[in-house]
Structure formats: C-alpha cells, structure tokens
Structure to design on (516 residues):
C-alpha cells in the first residue's frame, strides 16, 4: 500500500517538475504560433507517457536500488570495511580503497547505461546520422568515460589532491582532441558531458563522494565531497571523441586495402 | 469508420512498447548486476527486503519503457514541430524567448539543483561566509538557484543563435572553458566544487530530449545547416555557462 501512496506522491512531484515546460509549450502553441500541431493527440499521449514513466522509474529506483546503493557507498568507505578497525589510521594509503575505485567505476558505467536522457540523445544521434553513428557505440563510449571519471574522482578524494588540477588538465586534453577529432562528433561529444549526469547517476555518485570525504582521514566534506559529478561530465567528452577517432582510424585502414585490390 | 485505423494505431503502439520493455531490461541489467555483486560478494550481506527489490525493479523497467515510448511519440515530435513552426514563422524574438524560457523554467524547479543549492548554503554557513541563520541560508540558496537558472536560459539562447548563424560549436565552447579556467583562479575555493557540479545537474531528463529535438529540428529546417553538426550542442552550453555564473556568484557573495 505504501508503494502506491509513494507512487502518487512521486507522480505529483514529477508533474510539478514538468509543469513549467508544459505551460511554456501550451502558451507558445496557442498564443504565439497559433497553429495546431499535427497529430497532437498522439503527442499529448506521449507526453503523458513521459510523466508517468518517469514517476514509475524514479519511484522504482527509490524503492529497489537507491537505498542499497547509498548504504553500499558508505559501507565501502567505512573504516570497518577498509581497515577492519573502528577508526581509520591517521595516515591512509590510497590503495587501501581499491574496492571503492572499483565500485565507482562499475556503478558509473552501469548507471550511465540506464540514464534516460542519454538514451534520448543517442537515439536522436543515430536517427540524424542515418545510422552512421550507432546509438550503442555512443552510449558505451559515454559509459566508459563516466566509469574512468568516477574512479579517478574517488582517487582524488582519497588522496586529497585539488579538483581544479584534474579538471583543467581534462579541459586541456579536450581542447587538443577537438583539433584532431572528426568534425561531426564534436557537438555530440560536448553534449554528452552534460547529459550523462542526471536521474540515476547523481544520487548514487553524490552519496559516494560525501561518504568518502566523511570517512577518509584528513578530508573535509565541504571541500572534497563535491566534484565527482564534474569528473563524470568531463571524461565522457574525451571518451566520445576518442571513440570517433578510433572509428575513423579503423575505417581508413579498412578502406586502404580495398583500394589496392 | 476510422476504427480499424485507430485499432492498428494502438496495436503498433503496443508493439513498440513491448520492444521498449525488452530494451529497458537490457539497459537496467548492469546496475542490478553491480549492486547484487557488491552486496552479496564484496560486502557479504543479504538483501534487506527482497519484495521491495522485485517490485521496485518491475516499476523501473515499466517506467523506463513508458518514458522511451513517450520520447518517440511525444517529446521528440513536439520539440521538432515547435522548431519547425518557429522557423516557418521566422520570428527570431519569439524563438529566443522560447529558448530562454525553456532553460530558465526547467532549471529553477529542478530537484537536483534545489538539493545542491541547499547543500551549498550549509557549506557556506559552516565556513562563516554567510550568517548561519535559516533565513540567510535560504536566501543564499535561492540566489544560487536563480543564478544557475538564468545562466541556463542564456545558454540555450546563445546556443540557438549559434545554430541560426552556423558558428562552429568548438570555438564558443573552448572559449567558455578558458573563461571558466580563468575564473577558477579567482573564485573562492569553497565554491569551485559546487560550481563544477552545478554544470552537471542542470540538464534534466525532460529538458534534454526537448532541447535536443529543438536544436536538431531547427538545424533541419534551415537550409545549409547540418543537423548533426549544428543541431547538437545546446546541452553543452547549458552545462558550461552555469559553472562560470556560479563562480561569479561565489565571488560576489564571499567578497
């Protein structure tokens, strides 16, 4: 029974989130554009599907996965698990947290594959490129990027190195890659940075960051707890451009022998 | 008279939905596998409430499938139809107003942003940058939300102008990065993490498809624009601009 009342509540919340968009769409449709959309009944049904689907999705995550995932993030960084003692030693070696890095990498990958916004963008990319870009290629490339980003981000929290050093190095790499990457991938690669971190990834990753910065000796949650999302937004840009560069190189190689024959 | 066509229509929708259910199971398999592996193997604990897990997962699968179906027949067509209608109407002012409105209105109410802003106000009060009474903290958090929402609105607006003009996205984005890096040296240390995170949380699950469809639809309906090259990139602006704006907000508040 509680599940149903929760669902009604989430449905209301989702509707409240979507309401501004709906109002804006309706206002522009009726006051400015003043032309009925083709097949508007189907579109309205689709919009309703989005709201109900999102509510079910969020509520299901909150029922099944988020509580365990959050608990896991705290437990994996707790001194009892890492060192087997009640309190952490004053000086902790970075490799003591190996499970945390692995968890960060795997959960980053897995939540990215389940991210609805990324499904939307890669679906559109495949459609627009007329199959030249496969949606799974893009999604896997982004997921690998997030995975590497979270792993490195947790390493940063454990070692206490400054966030901006990593992010700036990341941006410099992105700029260099931009010069060499195929032109068509660039806007998409930049977009994927913002798309990846949304409904599924943020709650789990934020819990991991805060849990770590609270338990690793010498870390301040206020300073070190934030920033994991930033890692998860920069790395996919690199991995998507890298994916396109590799695909291009492979295509060139494949073309060459066929020319000779 | 139109009932056979209608029935066909429903049947096609049902078939699409079935495919999306299969897709949703595949999309969710990794998260479930990772969670189960860490819970049972690494931490060596049983699942506290098995029934909750099963019911919750069923809801997640159903929800994701419905969402993707809604994308296909709802959000994408709406975004594209609006873009096309704006292009046909040829009113730059209303297009830009619409873009700004979408960016601003979806961000100001974004739950993830509300959470981050609240967190940030606690941090600022702990560091004694602002008085730690609830009123000052609430006004700080609201100021932060307003800053981010404004920056997302301006970002979408700028991105739309870029599509219309056909500017290459990389010059603007790289310019933006350089600006953000430069700001990082001057911004107070406490705001940097929050600023970089706020870039990631602004773009919600409903905004992304709508804005993507708007950009792609606009690029498709203007002659000489390539949807792949010019249509994407709006989200990139919406994730970059808030970083800079939040750092400026931090510098203004922290002094």
């Amino acid at each position: 029974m509680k599940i149903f009342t929760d669902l009604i509540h989430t449905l209301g919340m989702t509707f409240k989130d979507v309401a501004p968009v709906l109002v804006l769409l309706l206002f522009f449709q009726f006051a400015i554009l003043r032309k009925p959309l083709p097949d508007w009944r189907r579109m309205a049904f689709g919009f309703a599907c989005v709201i109900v689907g999102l509510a079910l999705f969020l509520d299901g995550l909150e029922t099944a996965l988020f509580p365990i995932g959050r608990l896991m993030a705290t437990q994996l960084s707790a001194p009892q698990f890492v060192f087997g003692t009640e309190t952490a030693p004053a000086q902790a070696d970075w490799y003591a947290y190996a499970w945390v890095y692995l968890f960060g990498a795997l959960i980053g990958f897995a939540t990215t594959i389940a991210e609805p916004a990324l499904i939307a963008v890669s679906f559109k990319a495949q459609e627009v490129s007329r199959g030249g870009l496969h949606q799974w290629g893009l999604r896997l490339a982004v997921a690998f990027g997030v995975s590497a980003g979270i792993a490195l981000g947790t390493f940063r929290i454990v070692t206490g190195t400054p966030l901006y050093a990593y992010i700036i190095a990341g941006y410099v790499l992105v700029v260099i890659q931009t010069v060499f990457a195929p032109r068509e991938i660039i806007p998409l690669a930049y977009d994927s940075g913002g798309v990846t971190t949304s409904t599924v990834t943020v709650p789990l990753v934020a819990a991991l960051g805060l849990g770590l910065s609270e338990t690793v000796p010498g870390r301040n949650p206020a300073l070190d707890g934030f920033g994991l999302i930033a890692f998860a937004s920069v790395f996919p840009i690199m991995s998507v451009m890298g994916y396109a560069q590799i695909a291009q190189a492979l295509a060139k190689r494949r073309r060459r022998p066929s020319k000779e024959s | 008279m139109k009932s056979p066509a209608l029935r066909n229509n429903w049947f096609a929708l049902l078939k699409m939905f079935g495919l999306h259910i299969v897709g949703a199971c595949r999309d969710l398999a990794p998260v479930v596998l990772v969670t189960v592996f860490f819970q049972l193997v690494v931490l060596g604990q049983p699942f506290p409430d098995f029934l909750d897990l099963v019911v919750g997962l069923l809801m997640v699968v159903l929800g994701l499938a419905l969402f993707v179906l809604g994308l296909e027949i709802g959000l994408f067509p709406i975004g594209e139809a609006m873009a096309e209608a704006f292009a046909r109407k040829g009113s730059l002012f209303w297009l830009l107003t619409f873009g700004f409105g979408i960016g601003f209105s979806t961000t100001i109410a974004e739950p993830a942003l509300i959470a981050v802003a609240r967190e940030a106000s606690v941090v600022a009060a702990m560091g004694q940058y602002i008085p730690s009474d609830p009123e000052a903290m609430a006004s700080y958090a609201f100021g932060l939300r307003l800053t981010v929402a404004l920056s997302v609105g301006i970002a979408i607006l700028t991105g739309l102008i870029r599509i219309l003009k056909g500017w290459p996205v990389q010059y603007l984005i790289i310019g933006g990065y350089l600006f953000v890096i430069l700001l990082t040296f001057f911004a107070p240390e406490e705001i940097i993490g929050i600023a970089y995170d706020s870039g990631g949380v602004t773009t919600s699950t409903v905004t992304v498809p709508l804005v993507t469809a708007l950009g792609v639809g606009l690029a498709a309906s203007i002659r000489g624009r390539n949807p792949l090259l010019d249509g994407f990139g709006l989200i990139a602006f919406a994730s970059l601009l808030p970083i800079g704006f939040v750092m400026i907000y931090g510098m203004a508040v922290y002094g």
Remarks:
- The mean pLDDT of chain B is 87.
- The two ends of chain B are 71 Å apart (CA to CA).
